[in-house]
């Protein structure tokens, strides 16, 4: 382009783009020019104008540019003339010119929470409707999890608001760690969070919620707090619990607070936290609970007692309390058995007496190590485990819990006392674990089922 000053000047990229745009529009007919300019002006002003108005504004811009060039004696940029015309027409009430990078930062800040970096409540509403429309169109499930922090106010009261901010950031870190790339997490209130789980049914949503609780507990251990903060959840799924966003939010909120009150009322009476799902409010949700966090490797399971110990008297020393395989704490119910819970369905087990990996005895062995949570059935999924150092044997994963896993082989095999395995289950990434066989049984279908505990 000629320069009135006599020396060629290299135009900025945006000016070069507008010059090319002007030359291109000169070669188009009126209809095509109107259609293009309508979209272009909408993009830069966010105003919906008629095509004829847009053509008129562009013609005025070209005329104004010639006038300013003649008046100033130098070439005037096309964007300067365009800004002048739009402002004079009242389309820019308070004209502000921003760099593109600054505009993108403003757009991100408008939809994110500045403290946690999660999406905010505004984007939650927009994203929820978008995911619901997609789920309806393709007939897919959609999970919604509502979460809040128990005893968060006490942290602010005892340690101050900076400590409370650290807890909120820990909650955000937990959600970012626990979720899949297709999931979205939002901070929708002070200590309230929401999670959208596309293509996730009720069982998977509950399993992920338990995992979030477990990861949050581990994350908080790094903070010097005298208050035990926990994360409670309520789950609703589309279309099982409703088809509209407000219905699903209401169901998830009610389940959150019913479970919260039930759990912490028991904790106040000195009992352990309940892990069962609250009663369904509307269409029933399968009652499945778990804290699927096999990456936390518990200590080796204590040796099982194969016979009932004699009654304790004053002259007989009291045996030590059994230790939980999760946290080295005494358990409340030493009579709980691993054998009664390590399978997904007792109906699938043959009525014959089980063959235990432990030494044979005349009675069903009782194990004094109690699980932290019930197991999640993997029946109907493609969950599997690759066994051995070379991952040469494949086994089906029957169910999975915080302390162990049940696997099934096609036929009976002799197993070592420690098995290296890579677990492939829904929601979780592949994880390498060490397993200790605790019991084994032949199923009525001819398979060989083994209950294993995670060991370090």
What does this structure look like?
The protein is α+β, with helices and mostly antiparallel strands. Helix content is 36%, strand content 16%. The protein has 10 helices and 11 strands.
Measured between the Cα atoms of the first and last residue, the distance is 73 Å
Assign the CATH architecture of the largest domain: Beta Barrel
Q: Tally the helices.
A: 10
Task: Briefly note the CATH topology name of the largest domain.
Answer: Thrombin, subunit H
- CATH class identity of the largest domain: Mainly Beta
Please give the radius of gyration in angstroms: 32 Å
Indicate how many domains the architecture comprises.
Answer: 3
Got a strand count?
11
Write out the strand line-up for the largest beta sheet, numbering strands in chain order.
Answer: 6-7-8-11-10-9
Content-based structural category: alpha+beta
Give the low-pLDDT segments: 1-8, 270-373
What sort of overall outline do the alpha carbons produce when their principal axes are compared?
elongated
Helix share bin: 25-40%
Q: How would you sum up the major sheet? A: 6 strands, antiparallel, barrel
- Whole-number average pLDDT? 74
Q: How do the helices and strands follow one another from N- to C-terminus?
A: HHHHHHEHHEEHEHEEEEEEE
Measured by DSSP, the beta-strand proportion falls in 15-25%
